[in-house]
Predict the structure.
Amino acid sequence: MDTYRAAQVMEGLQITPAEVASMTPAQIQRLCFHRRNKDGTLRAPAGAAMRPKGGAMPHVPDATTLDEALARLEKYHAEAAWVPDDEKRRAAERLRARWGKKGGA
């Protein structure tokens, strides 16, 4: 087993060793043999939210102030647990830079 790749998955999904240790053999089998598409990619369950491509800046619609735009971005990040903290910080910086160009405050 490639432990580095397994560790990357655990870190990215914030899975603790205790959570892995508590998995039953049936759960591990379901993970290993999850249904796949013809091209080999994992098949998402019906109605599952699709994860955006890496680095995707979420659209913050109709914000009238920078504070409102940042609040909406924070709400998005609260719902999108997979987004790393450094990406959240960079997204807020990009949003501040865009508002700076608009002359908003």
